[in-house]
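Please go through the protein record below and explain what the tokens say about the fold. Record follows.
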Amino acid sequence: MISERVYQKRGAANPIGPSVDRKLHSVAVNTWNQIYARTADSYSIKCPTYKGCSIDSRWAVFQTFEKWFLKHYRPRYHLDKDILVLGNKVYGPDTCCYIPQELNKLFTDHGRARGPYPQGVRKDNNSLNVSISRYGQSEVLGYFNKNNVVEASECYQEAKSEYVIDAARKYRSVIHVKVYKALLRRAKNREF
């Protein structure tokens, strides 16, 4: 993990500096600072899924990050570190991409809400409730006997796979081809 950030002074030694729009530069600085905040141990206390996150050494120098940022940034899109590489914990140029918010929400793990059950499955009185959120709308897929955890999970996995494929197709024209391919791969392999 990189512990020291380097922000070089702008000027003749940094050719990108003078030509960068001030507002866009400000967004880049804010994004870079947010990445560092998310890799801090204190952040993982309130957001456990960020535990163990780090920054690729190439992004330790702000200007290196800014070059990548200026090439990939999309207004209203979210910086994502783990859609391309399942379980990735490193923020870097090979693992990060900008994606629409809806795609960023596809792989959110609601572990606290479901307790010991698989994704999409939670206990509801004496049965198992299987539900999915698609495009912001919650949908109940069915109820299963409390002993049929595998069947309940399979129901969710099938619906989630279909949803990821649908979302990939919906956003295909506005996302990078590597993001599209990663979504299809994850749907096929049921990597949620």
Notes: The two ends are 26 Å apart (CA to CA).
